[in-house]
TrEMBL record:
Domain of life of the organism encoding this protein: Eukaryota
Keyword annotations from UniProtKB, A to Z: NAD, Oxidoreductase
NCBIfam families per record: L-LDH-NAD
Enzyme type, top EC level: oxidoreductase
Species the sequence originates in: Xanthoceras sorbifolium
Name of protein: L-lactate dehydrogenase
Family: Belongs to the LDH/MDH superfamily. LDH family.
Residue spans of biased composition, Polar residues class: 8-17
Pfam families: Ldh_1_C, Ldh_1_N
């Protein structure tokens, strides 16, 4: 016997909703028709005659060309990065790529509708990588994210498979780009992206512990009740559980903090320092357990890196770079992890040589070993 699912009777509210949707559709259609009658079908470039050039104008002498960023992955992280880039007036063109066409178009339109409040930026979106052509910087955020309690390293196999589809077309359309990886586990995926891209190592960088260092600076600043921008403090190594806090080089407004405490004979327990570092490591887990994902801080972190690169700022950021042979990391290991790197228009210009205590150096080598072990199972 078959049971038929009866359609419920149409209520008055549903009728009103249906007619509202139809009215909205026809209003959109009407607006499009009016626009087309004024300007012709959708076109690229200005409508001829809309403004008249002034008499005897010399051709533009500007030699600068448009700058372009592409963001792959229009999820929580990709969109937080995109909107931070737009508000900070970093580029002339922003291209978004995702595998979900409707979500992608929705995100593009939503950002385009803010045009009246933002610096002028052309925003494009497509599931096709040709939209990314000629990018100066490609930021990859696509992929699986952690669920509450899950480690970043757990995401590896799923995201490596996606990277095989993402990295080759990105580099095909933008062979001169700097590639910035954000998807997790960011250090291993930066290595994977480097291998799949064939780019020189200075042009492949992971967002790494730039975010962890901001969390660290926030916690110290909060403790001392000062501005976090006055706190020079760095976390290096894995963006994850084996990261290393460089306590020995922290300064606040130029004052080295550990020697200040010692001079003032203020006792501090090693355990207190460990607790602060643990709070940094636990930060992402806490936010994910509360809201399901992290987005705003990584949005600002990635835009901060994008500015240093595209504006050739030569600022020093803890980011994931090829660490082979640096800080005592074994020459045989092509491992990417965060070290203090100078970033500019050519990507990673160099790595600074910060003094590490024996304990910090040992922890960094351990962090490298953790990443290297995971990497060795990849067969890339
Ligand atoms: N490095 C860092 O500091 C941080 C990294 N992350 C990582 O960023 C990644 C993204 O996180 P969310 O944005 O929260 O995830 P999400 O699930 O909101 O977005 C992921 C997006 O990737 C897209 N996608 C999947 N496969 C694709 C493909 N083959 N091509 C193009 N797009 C594809 C999905 O359609 C989705 O829109 C995760 O791996 C997460 O762990 C998140 C926060 C901080
Ligand atoms: C998810 C992640 O990697 C973070 O927020 O640190």
């Amino acid at each position: 016997m078959l049971y038929k699912v009866k359609s419920p009777p149409t209520t008055r509210l549903q009728k009103i909703q249906k007619s509202a949707v139809e009215t909205h559709r026809s209003a959109n259609q009407h607006a499009k028709e009016c626009f087309n009658s004024l300007t012709g079908p959708r076109r690229v470039g200005p409508v001829p005659g809309f403004f008249k050039p002034i008499q005897n104008a010399a051709p533009s002498s500007s030699t600068s060309r448009n700058t372009k960023i592409s963001v792959v992955g229009a999820g929580n992280v990709g969109m937080a990065i995109a909107q931070t880039i737009l508000t900070q007036d970093l580029v002339d063109e922003l291209a978004l790529v995702d595998a979900k066409p409707d979500k992608l178009r929705g995100e593009m339109l939503d950002l385009q509708h803010a045009a009246a409040f933002l610096p002028r930026t052309k925003i494009l979106a497509s599931v096709d990588y040709s939209a990314t052509v000629g990018s100066d910087l490609c930021i990859v955020t696509a992929g699986a994210r952690q669920i509450a309690g899950e480690s970043r390293l757990n995401l590896l196999q799923r995201n490596v498979a996606l990277f095989r589809d993402i990295i080759p077309p990105l580099v095909k359309y933008s062979p001169d780009c700097i590639l910035m990886i954000v998807s997790n586990p960011v250090d291993v995926l930066t290595y994977v992206a480097w291998k799949l891209s064939g780019l020189p190592p200075n042009r492949v960088v992971g967002s790494g512990t730039n975010l962890d260092s901001s969390r660290f600076r926030f916690l110290i600043a909060d403790h001392l009740d000062v501005n976090a921008q006055e706190v020079q403090a760095c976390i290096i190594g894995e963006h994850g559980d084996s990261s290393v806090a460089l306590w020995s080089s922290i300064s606040v407004g130029g004052v080295p903090i550990l020697s200040f405490l010692e001079k003032q004979q203020i006792a501090y327990e090693k355990e207190t320092l460990e607790k602060i570092h643990k709070a940094v490591v636990d930060s992402a887990y806490e936010v994910i357990s509360l809201k399901g994902y992290t987005s705003w801080a990584i949005g600002y972190s990635a835009a901060n890196l994008a500015r240093s690169i595209l504006r050739d700022q030569r600022k020093i950021h803890p980011v994931s770079v090829l660490a082979k042979g640096l800080y005592g990391i074994q020459g045989g290991d092509d491992v990417f992890l965060s070290l203090p790197a100078v970033l500019g228009r050519a990507g990673v210009l160099g790595v600074t040589d910060v003094h590490l205590t024996d304990e910090e150096a040992r922890r960094l080598r351990e962090s490298a070993r953790t990443i290297s072990e995971v990497q060795s199972q990849l067969g890339i």
